[in-house]
Design a protein that fits this description.
The complex is a heterodimer.
Chain A: E1 4-5, E2 10-14, E3 19-21, E4 24-25, E5 33-39, E6 46-52, E7 60-61, E8 64-69, E9 74-79, E10 88-98, E11 101-106, E12 110-115
Parallel strand pairs in A: 2-12
Antiparallel strand pairs in A: 1-4, 3-9, 5-6, 5-10, 7-8, 8-9, 10-11, 10-12
Chain B: E1 5-7, E2 10-13, E3 19-24, E4 31-37, E5 43-50, E6 53-57, E7 65-68, E8 75-79, E9 88-95, E10 107-108, E11 112-116
Parallel strand pairs in B: 2-11
Antiparallel strand pairs in B: 1-3, 3-8, 4-5, 4-9, 5-6, 7-8, 9-10, 9-11
Classes of the chains: A mainly beta, B mainly beta.
Chain lengths: ~120, ~120
């Protein structure tokens, strides 16, 4: 079974508008972490934002915020005021304990295109 | 800002040849990882390394793969006899580790693109 599910293969947004990228997860580990990474066409993986399972408040980093709904097991990324440079693949990832280690696993990604 | 460095950025090899991909993790990081991404597909975990030994490995990481940290700074991935399906982008990543929030945030290198002909 998929541990991280990103149901939107592609999303389009107008420049300066907000966009939400969906992510749901499945784990029985009570101490987990959730990440979002951006992968532009150049290929590198850029860390955007992190949310720990015990964090009381939703994480925010500049224009990025994480809408963490623990009961629903969702961790959606909200990008406010989209810019053309936001066009990229976005990956949701979860860190959970596997054996003796915490291993981050990734979803399949969502391709975001920002239109001028 | 500290970064993870990977070499080579692109390698082309013949099927059956050995390949070594190199990584220099961030100096105060304790956990090291290799992931791969076949073109246009998901990022797949291969192996994690801590305290000079493998801590976890995936089903992909079979006997053809090995990792080592030969000199305390480099972290290498070796593929003994490459197959066509090994063609992918290979990412090295490192993290601080520990219990604090965000301690397991992975910092990725720029990747090494392997093409097997």
């Amino acid at each position: 079974a998929q541990k991280i599910t990103q149901t939107q293969p592609g999303m389009f947004v107008q420049e300066k508008e907000a966009v939400t990228l969906d992510c749901t997860y499945d784990t029985s580990d009570p101490s987990y972490g959730l990440f979002w990474y951006k992968q532009p066409s150049s290929g590198e993986m850029i860390f955007l934002i992190y949310q720990g399972s015990y964090d009381q408040q939703n994480a925010t980093e500049g224009r990025y915020s994480l809408n963490f709904q623990k009961a629903r097991k969702s961790a959606n990324l909200v990008i406010s005021a989209s810019q053309l440079g936001d066009s990229a693949m976005y990956f949701c990832a979860m860190r959970e304990r596997t054996g003796g280690s915490y291993i981050p696993t990734f979803g399949r990604g969502t391709s975001l295109i920002v239109h001028p | 800002e500290p970064e993870v460095t990977q070499t080579p950025s692109h390698q082309v090899t013949q099927m059956g040849q050995e390949v070594i991909l190199r990584c220099v993790p961030i100096s105060n990081h304790l956990y090291f990882y290799w992931y791969r991404q076949i073109l246009g597909q998901k990022v797949e975990f291969l192996v994690s390394f801590y305290n000079n030994e493998i801590s976890e490995k995936s089903e992909i990481f079979d006997d053809q793969f090995s990792v080592e940290r030969p000199d305390g700074s480099n972290f290498t991935l070796k593929i003994r006899s490459t197959k066509l399906e090994d063609s992918a982008m290979y990412f090295c990543a490192s993290s601080v580790g520990g219990d604090s929030s965000g301690a397991n945030v992975l910092t990725f290198g720029a990747g090494s693109r392997l093409t097997v002909l």
